[in-house]
Amino acid sequence: MSSINALPTRRIRGIRRLSIIALACLATSASLGAGDALASHGQPTFFEATSELLNPRTRSNVLGQLQYLGVKALRVELYWHEVAPAANSPKRPNFDATNPANYAWGGYDWILSEAARLKWQVLLTVTSPVPKWATAGHKDLVTRPNTTQFKEFMMAVGRHYGSQVSLFAIWNEPNHPAYLRPQFNRNGTPASPRIYRGLFQEGYAGLQAAGIAKPQVLLGETAPFGYDHVNVRREGGGALLHDVSPLAFLRGTLCLNDHYRKASTCGLLPAYGYAHHAYTSGRGPSYRPPTDDVTVGVLSRLSSALDRAARAHAIPAHLPIYLTEFGIQSKPNILGVSLAKQAQFDALSEKIAWQNPRVAAFSQYLYRDDKLGGPPGSSVHGGFIGFQTGLLEHNGKRKPLYFGFPVPLVVSKQGGGYSLWGLVRPATAATKVQVLIAAPHSRRYRTLATVTTDSHGYWSLRSSAHGGSWRVSWRSPGGVVYAGPAIGAS
Fold it and tell me: What residues contact residue 415 under an 8 Å CB cut-off, 6+ apart?
């Protein structure tokens, strides 16, 4: 997660860690058949709780909670530095880097075996920090990783985890200086895209060499904010610590100029999809940032860029978009919204993604809030940045989002009435869900309607009933009751 501009980053170990009635019911029941047309697809939600699942003291309880919440897919960040031998040494040890037996996989084995047992999809993002001996200069853990050594590591990853992983991704937020450097050249032009291109090519080749003939590898995993160019003369060395904007990064990675014309020396990258972290600002999902930034409210920028890149024969045509990391910051983070708004904005963001036929997956990061950390941007200097995008506060107290995540609800004003959309995430087939409504300034809820979901758990309806807040309630086949938080109309 990033950015220096608008959002705080989280910490990786050693580098980061960047919410009238009887008549109304009659009025609504008459309009159930006129609901918004449901999309013909579902979208998996990749949940990221790597820290808790790697911790032997918390992993079993958290895994149980994820099952309760309806999670069916995990995103796991595999840190090269964490599993490699002599990772803090500037000198590479003498070992066969392609042999999985030479790595300390630790808790990763537990996570992937449990996911396989539960038949959950796994997105494995292989990323920095890097062993010091595999970086340029051997002085830090992110600068110009050696692509040949990365290929060897990916061979080991493919041999060890190939049968347990649904999707691979190369690098986390490679357009952010906490994870890959340098981001910019001294003349102010982006440097990280070409570095990343080499990592993607060699990582893909490593998976093939491991015996995976056509590995499903996502390109990108980009942060949402950044710069196309920086002025080193004006800002000094600090200019080199800015993010590269996601679309400038995409163009650079694919050898495209600003007009999406490809250099003749570059071939097509065999990406399976494009991964992006479409975080937004405290203004909510409708926020529209500057042109080359991509938040959840402006996903068309990314799909348009991918289409232009495909026409230039830089990537396959019709590449799907995977939103592999997302969350809404809540207070007390200085960029956060109220706890109630967090649940409301998160559900609205998920609906935006679901309505977009190009989007193949949504995501949730975190499970539990980080501690509050330093100011935005300090992670590039080794500082700690707290993220408050979780379902629980850092002390373990459940937020409205904890109750809203399994049964997200969106209520939108439409004409003289309202359009409602929702999902029963834990459902495994079509089911019935109760929609409740309260009059303005009242906490007393009454049944507005009972609706039937599609086979993926999605539902929608239109209502002429005016209310102050809405909720949903669902009883699972096993008798567990899920009661969502109060949601206002947007």
Answer: none
Task: Spell out the residues 6+ positions from residue 438 whose beta carbon is closer than 8 angstroms to its own.
Answer: 444, 445, 446, 467, 468, 469, 470, 471, 486
User: Contact 307/313 with Cβ under 8 angstroms?
Assistant: no
Side-chain half-sphere CA neighbours of 488 within 13 A? 12
- What would the pLDDT profile of 240-287 be if each residue is shown by its tens digit? 899 999 999 999 999 999 999 999 999 999 999 999 999 999 999 999
Closest CA to 216 of 147, 103, 316: 316
> CA–CA separation, 447 vs 437, rounded Å?
6
Residue the block writes with tokens 């309009």 = 31
Q: Is 157 helix (H, G, I), strand (E, B) or coil?
A: helix
* Token code pair at residue 76: 């796991």
Pull the structure tokens for residue 184: 């910019």
Per the structure block, which two tokens stand in for 267?
């071939």
Return d(Cα 143, Cα 255) in angstroms, integer.
21
User: Domain coordinates of the chain in residue numbers?
Assistant: 40-405
Q: 40-405 adopts what CATH topology?
A: TIM Barrel (3.20.20)
Considering all CA atoms of the chain, what is the largest pairwise distance in Å, rounded to the nearest integer?
Answer: 77
Sequence-distant (≥ 6) Cβ neighbours of residue 459 within 8 angstroms: 35, 38, 421, 422, 423, 424, 433, 451, 452, 453
Tell me the pLDDT tens digit for each residue of 131-165.
999 999 999 999 999 999 999 999 999 999 999 99
Between CA 144 and CA 216 the distance in angstroms is 24
Q: How far apart are CA 363 and CA 74, in angstroms?
A: 9
Q: What does the pLDDT look like over 388-445, one tens digit per residue?
A: 999 999 999 999 999 999 999 999 999 999 999 999 999 999 999 999 999 999 999 9
The pLDDT > 90 percentage for the chain reads 85
The DSSP H or E segment spanning 438 is: strand 432-438
Euclidean distance between CA atoms 66 and 402, whole angstroms? 11
Helix (H, G, I), strand (E, B) or coil at 22: helix
Q: Residue 9 above 60 pLDDT?
A: no
